[in-house]
Amino acid sequence: MKIILNNILQYMAIYFIFVFVTYAQTPLSPLNDQKQLRSIYKELVEINTTDSVGSCTVAAEAMAKHLKNAGFDPNHLRLLVPEGGPKKGNLVASIPGKNTSLKPILLLAHIDVVEAKREDWERDPFKLIEENGNFFARGAADDKSMAAIYVANMIRMKAEKFMPERGIVMALTCDEEKIPSKFNGVEYLLKNHRSLIDAELAVNEGADNLVRPDGTKVFVALMASEKVFQTYTFEVTNPGGHSARPRKDNAIYDLSRGLANLSNFAFPVELNEVTKAYLEKMSQFESGQLSADLLAISKNAYDKDVISRMSDKPYYDNLLRTTCVATMLTAGHATNALPQRAKATVNCRIIPGASVDEVYQTLQKVVANDNIKITPDHEPVKSPPSPLTPKIVNAVSAVAEQIFPGLPVVPTMIVATTDGRFLNNAGIPTYGITGMFKDANGGFIHGLNERLPVSSLFEGQEFLYRITKRLASN
Fold first, then answer.
1. Which of 26, 258, 315, 439 is the most exposed place for a label (fewest CB within 10 A)?
2. Nearest 5 degrees, angle CA 108-CA 111-CA 115?
3. pLDDT in tens, 425-463
4. Separation of alpha carbons 94 and 171, rounded Å
5. Rounded to an integer, what distance in angstroms lies between the CA atom of residue 61 and that of residue 41?
6. CATH 3.40.50.150 fits 228-267+322-348+360-382, yes or no
C-alpha cells in the first residue's frame, strides 16, 4: 500500500509540474473566460451577417445582450442603425477611464461576413464546427473571432472592476466586406457619432502573424499600413450583329486582348517605411538567395534579376507593388448574336502614397485599345500608414514576449483593405494586432471552409486582453 501511495504521489507531482510548465509557456485566460468566449463566438458565428440575407443588427443586439447581462450601464451601450439600412446595425460599448482628458483606446472589429454557399462547403458555413483542432465557419477568422474576443474581454474587465487610466471603446461594425457601401459602419459612425469612437489609437484586424506549413510560429505582426482599394469596370460596346457575319471589332475579343495585356504587366516596385522594415526583418528568417534578395530590396540596392526572382513569389511580390487583377467577367446576350457588350471588373490594390490617377492612366496605356472604356466604380479612400511609435511597438513587443516567448514583432503592410482606412484618414492611427495565428494558407479567409485553429482563438483572447489593458493604462 505504501509503494502504491508513493507512486500515486509521484504521478501527481509530475502532473502538476506538467500543468505548471504548460501554463507558464502559454499563459491563457482562465478556463471560465475561455468557456464564455467559446459560447459568445459560437452564437456570433451562427448569426448570418452576409449582405444578401443576413443581419448585422441581429448580431449587434445579441452581443449587446451579453454586455447588458454582465452589468454594463445602458448609457455605455449604443446600438446604432443607419437610416435606410435596418440590417446594418453597429454596436458601441465603453468602459470609462479615470482620466477623462485622455482619449480612449478603440477596439474595432467588423461583424459582417463574405457570402458562403452551403453547396460549395464541406460543412455548414453558418454552424461553428470544431474538427481536427480547428474551428470551421464563415467568419471563424474574419472577423468574428476578434469581435467575440472583444465582447468576452470587455465582460472580463467589467467583472474585475478594472478602471483604466483612459477609456476603452469597442465598436462592432457592419459592411467592411462590401466596397463601396452606403452603410459602412465605421464611415457612418465617424460621420454621425464621432464622439463615441474618437480615440488616441485603434486596434483592428489585419495582422498576418506568420506561421510555417509545419505549424511553427515565426513572428507576431504589427500591421501599420494597408493598400488602397480601387475597382474599375473595363467595358467594350458595339452594335453587334448576326453571328453568321463576324466582324473584327468583336467586343469579347477587344476586351480579352486588353485583359491579356494586363495579365502580363507588373507595376513598378514602391516601398514605404513599413515594407522596408518588414523585408529587412524577413531577410533574417529566410536563407540563401531569397534572404539576399529581401535585404537588397529593403536597402534599395536591387536590380532586374532580383525583381524577376521576387516576381515568382506572390507572397512577397504583392507587397512590393500595386496590383490590378480581373475578378469578374460578363459578355454577350445570345448564342447566335455577336456580343454588343463585354465587361470585366478589375480590382486594384494600390501601394499607400501612390497616385490613384497615375494607376488609372497606366491601365489605359496597358490595355492599349481606345474601344475599352475604363471607369472607376467608386472614389478611393486613401489610407496613410500609421506611425510606429514607441508606445505601440513597446506594448506589442512586451505582450508578445509574455504569450509567445522569443518571437519577434515585425511591422507589416497588409495587401488587402480594412476599415482602418477610414480611421486613419480621420486622424485615428490604426494598427492590426490580433495575437491569432491562422494556418499557412491564411485560414482560407473569403474562401471555402474558412477556419481558425482552436488554440489561436484562446491565445488571441489573452493577447488582446493584455494589450488592451496595457494601452489603456497610460
1. 315
2. 140
3. 999 999 999 999 998 788 889 999 999 999 999 999 999
4. 9
5. 14
6. no
